[in-house]
């Protein structure tokens, strides 16, 4: 009961094999695999961290199966969007076992997304992946930006 009491009074710490651990201090890229489970199907998924390679790998796309993925990266200096993440989409989608249509929505026209689109176009078609190029623009006061309308 003392261990249960410790966990309730201090949720950030827990006992593992009698040793105090602090999960918050673990690195985000743990060597432990994510627990197995069924894939999650969603209409729309935002690729984490502006499509940075820090947190997204093929496992994300194997497990989070979306009709639409939003790629918002526009910071080449920080590797956003990451070519590795876009390639991970192809790798993860190839594991689905069902050829559902997927639409990729880049919010910015970047050199990385253009090159990836051109170099992997055949693979995209094979996997039923469509990349949406927005030709619409929203104008608000002093700024304008590309827009995309999605209907479910």
Structure description:
Helix content is 30%, strand content 26%. It is an alpha/beta fold and 152 residues long. It is globular. A hairpin with a 2-residue loop joins strand 1 (14-16) and strand 2.
Summarize the entry for a quick read.
With 152 residues, the chain is of the alpha/beta class. Helices cover 30% and strands 26% of the residues.
Which labels suit this protein?
microtubule binding, 152 residues, 8 strands, alpha/beta, RibonucZ/Hydroxyglut_hydro, disordered N terminus, two-stranded antiparallel sheet, 4-stranded parallel β-sheet, actin binding, MAP1A protein
How far is the N terminus from the C terminus?
Answer: 50 Å
| Average pLDDT for all residues | 77
H/E element order = HEEEHHEHEHHEEE
Which of globular, elongated, flat, extended, rod-shaped describes the shape? globular
How many E strands?
Answer: 8
Please report the number of helical segments. 6
How is the largest sheet built, in terms of strand order?
3-4-5-6
Q: Compute the number of structural domains.
A: 1
């Amino acid at each position: 009961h003392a261990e249960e009491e410790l966990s309730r009074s201090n949720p950030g710490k827990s006992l593992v094999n009698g040793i105090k651990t602090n999960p918050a201090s673990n690195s985000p890229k743990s060597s432990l695999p994510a627990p197995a489970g069924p894939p999650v199907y969603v209409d729309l998924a935002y690729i984490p961290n502006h499509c940075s390679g820090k947190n997204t790998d093929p496992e994300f796309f194997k497990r989070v199966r979306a009709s639409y993925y939003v790629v918002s990266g526009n910071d080449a200096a920080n590797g956003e969007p990451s070519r590795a993440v876009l390639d991970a989409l192809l790798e993860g989608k190839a594991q689905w076992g069902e050829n559902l249509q997927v639409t990729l929505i880049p919010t910015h026209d970047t050199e990385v997304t253009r090159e990836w689109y051109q170099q992997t176009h055949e693979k995209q078609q094979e996997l039923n992946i469509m990349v949406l190029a927005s030709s619409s623009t929203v104008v608000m006061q002093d700024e304008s930006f590309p827009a995309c309308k999605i209907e479910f």
